[in-house]
Amino acid sequence: QVLMNMRIALLLLSVCSETVFCFSHGKVEVACGDMTPQHDSDPSTKHPPFNIIADKSQFSPGDEIKVTLSMASSEGKHYFKGFLIEARNAGDLNEIVGSFKLISPDISQLLKCDNKEGSAVSHTSDSHKTEVQVIWVAPSDSPSSVQFLVTVARGYKEFWVKIPGPVVSQNGAAPPPQTTFGGSIGAQTTTSTILSHSFTSEGCGGRKSCLRDPEGCDPQNDTTCHFLSFSALGSNVMFELSGPAEGYVSFALSQDKWMGNDDVYLCIRDTDRVDIKAAYVSGRTHPIISSQNILKGIAWRLSDGVIQCSFRRDIHLPPENLNRFDLDQMYYLFMAHGRAEDGRTHRHDHQPIISTYRAAITGPPEDLTGSRSPLLIKYHGAFMLIAWTSTVSAGVIMARYFKPDWPERNILGQKVWFQLHRMLMTITVLLTLVGFVLPFMYRGGWSKRAGIHPYLGCVVMALAVIQPVMALFRPAPDFRVPEILAVCVFKHCHNQAVCFHDLVVTIFLGIHQQALSLPAPWSTGVLAFLVVWFVLADLVLEVHRRGFLPIGQ
Questions:
Q1: Using one digit for the tens of pLDDT, what is the confidence trace for 178-208?
Q2: DSSP string, 90-107
Q3: Does residue 288 contact residue 301 with C-beta atoms inside 8 Å?
Q4: Residue (of 305, 269, 275) closest to 293 by Cα position
Q5: Where do the domains of the chain lie, and which CATH numbers do they carry?
Q6: pTM
Q7: Residue 436, φ and ψ in degrees, nearest 5
Q8: Which of 111, 433, 454, 516 gives a 20 to 30 Å CA spacing to 240?
Q9: Per the UniProt record, which residue ranges are transmembrane (predicted)?
């Protein structure tokens, strides 16, 4: 048990570390274009405390120029962690120019940007650094002037984007005007306002489409209401999102009911304000925040633990806005909420609310329905619950206690107790088999977030299949078998496996899975009652069988 707890702790630690440090390994090709870290926050507007120096001001094709990034000597916090260095055409800063060589491969590495090997340099870890040097090699087709741009991160929420470095020119070319150091910060920001009043469900299905949980709730007077509304306004769509959460509320547009390749929008609480971000997820991963400013009319509100935000978005966006869906299509809607720390989101606390069917975002208003529990997982839970708290219990009692009471009665050539026992246990195996397959169909494979439940489920499935196999090889009652074989194999092994199932440990763990979304704690109480009922019934019948408790006499 201790070893298992240690393994779980290490797993959680690794997951949390991956979430917090994100791209600490420096493989930041995803940021090659806009040079913006995926840090769920805006870059610092303070003057960059760094020096960027080139050892030459002029070059010829094939020349090498040493570029140095270092801390400004007057800066008290004397380190940085991450960096990204690129060389751009000074006349067109969207064009990456030339390639780099490494001087310190222990702290720097080459990246492939714009399909050019070695066209950028980044960090290899989040260790503290005070200086990094690289060599830039001028290409044969170099433009007349080249400018070095640098993104530097000191921490998750403290970073500077596209700091303009020195401009170098080809021999004989007139140098362009120098850019003021630290004057260009790449990411755009949008002014937000504070909502004067709460959202309301008035107009749902008439003026706007709504998705709510609990069904029919009103965010204006119910602080437990998770609420999403949207309505078309000319060439825009207006979204309203509300819900109780410690860190963030979010919704996503999806082509299916699976998480992955979705258009996501997050309202993240940051102390006493709310940051509203567009993002996307490529799988069951942390959302990647978009560097493009696509949201308009941003407003937010914090009250009684409820996060509310609203914004407008164009129905159609320019092609450069990758992973953004056009809003004139039909999508499944996801609503989720969870914790956030220093503006960084963690995995949602509960199973997301998923709309029952696709909704037309710009279509006629409708009052949508949804569920936190997928239908396949509901069937999985129902089949397993019926099998291991009903049919198996009745089958065991039938074989253990009714055998002597119905010694001569027969059905289809077999004794009554045996026919009923076989029927009930066959139903148990079939229900278990179907229930076992359903989660794999839903997840599309093995679930890494379900704890020990799926492992115990595999054990249950194996033992459930073994039982009828052992029963098939059990000899006839009049066949003489060595006593030790009869006791060990056909009595204890067959029955002890069934007793293990009766403990329903796996079901106790399963009812707390997010995908089932069962109300606690009464769901645990109901299952405990069923187990106690079976144990008491078994005890009473055992006492009666031994003659200590006459029943019906």
A1: 443 333 323 334 566 888 889 999 999 999 9
A2: TTEEEEE--EEEES-TTT
A3: no
A4: 275
A5: 42-170 (2.60.40.4060), 193-371 (2.60.40.1210), 375-546 (1.20.120)
A6: 0.55
A7: -70, -35
A8: 516
A9: 381-402, 423-442, 454-476, 522-541
